[in-house]
Write a structure and sequence with these properties.
Chains A, B: InterPro entries: NAD(P)-bd_dom_sf, ODC_Mu_crystall, ODC_N. The structure is a homodimer of 351-residue chains. Chain A has 351 residues and is α/β, with parallel strands linked by helices. Chain A is built from 11 helices and 17 strands.
Amino acid sequence: MKDNLNIVPFVSVENMMRLVLERGIENCMAEIAQYLEEDFRRWPLFDKTPRVASHSREGVIELMPTSDGIDYGFKYVNGHPKNMKEGLQTVTAFGLLASVETGYPVLLSEMTVLTALRTAATSAVATKYLARKDSKTLALIGNGAQSEFQALALKKICGIDAVRLYDIDPAATEKCAANLADSGLTIIKCDTPQGAIEGADVVTTCTADKKYSTILTDNMVGAGIHINAIGGDCPGKTELHKDILLRSDIYVEYPEQTRIEGDIQQLDDDYPVKELWQVLTGEIDGRSDDKAITLFDGVGFAIEDFSALRWLRDALKSSDKYQDLDMIADPDDPRDLFGMVRREAERLADS
Amino acid sequence: MKDNLNIVPFVSVENMMRLVLERGIENCMAEIAQYLEEDFRRWPLFDKTPRVASHSREGVIELMPTSDGIDYGFKYVNGHPKNMKEGLQTVTAFGLLASVETGYPVLLSEMTVLTALRTAATSAVATKYLARKDSKTLALIGNGAQSEFQALALKKICGIDAVRLYDIDPAATEKCAANLADSGLTIIKCDTPQGAIEGADVVTTCTADKKYSTILTDNMVGAGIHINAIGGDCPGKTELHKDILLRSDIYVEYPEQTRIEGDIQQLDDDYPVKELWQVLTGEIDGRSDDKAITLFDGVGFAIEDFSALRWLRDALKSSDKYQDLDMIADPDDPRDLFGMVRREAERLADS
């Protein structure tokens, strides 16, 4: 047990890609969805706090910690919309899992790829519990970095078999269509948001502009649809016209955070919204009937990253896709940190 | 500039020890003290927030973020007093520096050794500005992991030439004395705190018990002394009798945090204390005369870790004591994260 507690397994971007390919992207998202469901069902026991944000003119850097009393996890994530023009990622992330018992880190990982997987898996869990059971067609508004993951997670977990694509930039739609060409999904490229949403049972909006946008207007949204609005995820960034919100049953992760960051920032602070985890525990009902419009206003919450890191730790038990990091000082005598440095000098002198 | 932004230099415990030995421990602390002084002088421009703590029955895990508008830094640190009995470190830590402009991490490092260096360097800066200029003798109450660093930092930066040691456990005193045997300091091992403090110009208390202790009582503290009280650093953990506080001019790092964690948690919330950084900028006076008792109630603040990480980043410019971590996803097209994973599959198939 004590052996090598000072060594922390680290999953690089390359190892994360190889791990995901080894298990299959769709399988990984289905597995992560199971961890998400487990953690949603025990939501009240988590230590919850809104993310700790450091805002600047160009973007934001955030720390998202949480704990279930056994493990502690946090994610570092930035959001810099202007990065894309410079050929950089808008969002990069890494995360850590630690033992509450000892405070020692037990896993460090890239989380850019992992966040893409957990975000799509979260939308799929919301869709599974809120969309009409016969949903087959997904409209994807915004065909950027998250889009393919959404399509495959909803295929694998919710039985979606057709995807209608729209992006303000046709090149993004072409990229998404090419990436999904051999997925088994029927792909329909659309020239307008209206065209994309036509006949869709589920809509996911995942656009990237940091501003108040109206990706969907009220007349576009018909009865019975389920919407995952996941691109509106920070103050000043929304995707849906307010009138859609007023016609929908709204589900969120953590109201305290979503009221600041989600599409519901357009509504009054006491506008009634439901918490997704309560649908999973059965404390509240999900969709009322086939005519209702359900909206998952997803902004991403620390517990989802925690679930993803728990999945990763377990996945590594049968994989070699990590490297060992000498991250924690481990003197023979905990009170003799100085002696540890001295003995390193002696070792260097001897060698 | 854009090249290899996805690769983050990482300083392991072994590399940190080798870097410190390469430059000399005392030199490193003197250099870090310069970075600390720079950052103390521009204290108001930092983004300051009390640490984000996750408490459990066994200890605490904390995130300590800060930013100067150019760089962003945070430290992960735990405090688990019961760890020592299990042969583990009470405190372990790692830290990160990132670019505010892009949100990309630029340096990841172990911070158990680095925190020991910056804590001692901070005490030395406080001592330099608050102790009597002719101070030569240091009493070290608590001879654990921080003690040798305190002795050497105060020797190098403040001209201390003799150290009087006391610990409730004589084995700790023997360990500290042995580690300092070839330091050039005169070492006096003492059987009581009273004996240790006799004739001392400066006292550093750095004990580890998580409880209200009275390491120093009022009658032990004579006129003209400077005290660094650095072991009382969390709620419920103090070292000095309240009457000593009432006779002292008290200097702190960040009052909002120190009133919760420091020895001054024993005083009323509005008891007047001074901020150390203002002594460095000249906004307030330090020691009034040779009879005053000055007290630095140090609990450790995020800006000090930031200074230490800045020092490390600059030190690495002339050292190879780091390794490259593939930590940030870097697709050719930022919107094509999925394609990056696909292309990895093609590479694996080709190889």
